[in-house]
Design a protein that fits this description.
The protein is mostly helical and 287 residues long. The chain has five helices and no strands. The chain has three domains: 97 residues; 47 residues; 138 residues. This is Coiled-coil domain-containing protein 93. InterPro entries: CCDC93, CCDC93_CC.
């Protein structure tokens, strides 16, 4: 199309130049130029115009067809634009009609202010609800973070078992210390009593040798001391039997606790194996 327009332009330029030449020749004929030269130029012009007439007409027809197509496309493109323009103009007229009166304008501004205030209140309420929900979410997140995992629970269990064993050892050691202290304290009391008894016997023995009444008193006092010792011995034997019974009961409890401990160790081992299997399955399913 551009080549046709260019060729059309060149042909029109040629025609313009030839018209100018004709005009100049007419002026020269007025000044006495020969008419033969003019006729030759006219014949040449007719010949050139006839030779290029068909080509120019074809180019003009194609250009006209192209212009018609462009006009149709322009009308198709402008039709929605015109509709949009008409719609916008109608909206502009409507807005201008709204703002024509002061009363209507004030009512519109009041309604706009009310709508703005209501929107701000709604926004503030939504913000408050969002903040409360965020606080609840953070609290739940802290609780979830505080919940220990399975590995942490296993570590805690191991540490507690170790701590319990250490406490048991310290408790046994403390009980042994208290038992030793009580035994030594009883030995001390018995030693002091024995020493005082021997001292009293030694002091009364010299008097008892010289007098028969003193001998009887010494014998009676010795019998009383023997009875007291026998009663104390019976008491000690009774306490020994009670302690022996307590010891036997503790041995039975210890045996039961040992069996329970072994069972707990077996269960713990099985639980750890199951946890390891569970972790392995989780890793496989996640991958």
């Amino acid at each position: 199309m551009s080549e046709a327009i260019k060729s059309q332009g060149t042909c029109s330029e040629r025609l313009i130049e030839e018209n100018k030449c004709l005009q100049s020749l007419q002026v020269d004929s007025d000044n006495g130029v020969s008419m033969d030269i003019l006729k030759e130029d006219v014949d040449e012009l007719d010949r050139v115009s006839k030779a290029n007439a068909n080509h120019v007409v074809q180019n003009l027809m194609s250009c006209l067809k192209t212009l018609e197509d462009l006009g149709k496309q322009e009308s198709e493109l402008l039709s929605p634009c015109d509709a949009q323009r008409i719609k916008l103009q109608a909206e502009i007229f409507e807005l201008e009609g709204r703002f024509t009166g002061d009363h209507e304008c004030s009512n519109f501004l009041d309604s706009l202010d009310n709508f703005t205030s209501e929107s701000e209140e709604e926004l503030n309420s939504v913000k408050k609800a969002l903040a409360s929900r965020l606080r609840e979410t953070l609290a739940l997140k802290r609780l979830l973070d505080d919940v220990p995992t399975q590995t942490e629970l296993i570590q805690y269990e191991r540490r507690f078992s170790e701590l319990f064993i250490n406490i048991q050892d310290k408790h046994r050691q403390t009980r042994r210390y208290y038992a030793t202290y009580n035994a030594l304290l009883e030995i001390k009391d018995l030693t002091l009593k024995e020493t005082s008894l021997l001292n009293s016997i030694s002091s009364q023995f010299q008097d008892a040798i010289a007098n028969s009444m003193s001998q009887m008193k010494l014998i009676e006092s010795m019998e009383g001391i023997l009875k007291g010792i026998q009663q104390k011995l019976d008491k000690v034997l009774l306490s020994h039997q009670e302690e022996q019974q307590v010891c036997n009961a503790l041995k039975e409890k210890y045996a039961a606790a040992t069996a329970e401990q072994r069972r707990c160790y077996a269960l713990l081992k099985a639980f750890q194996e199951e946890c390891a299997k569970n972790e392995k399955l989780r890793t496989q399913t996640s991958t």
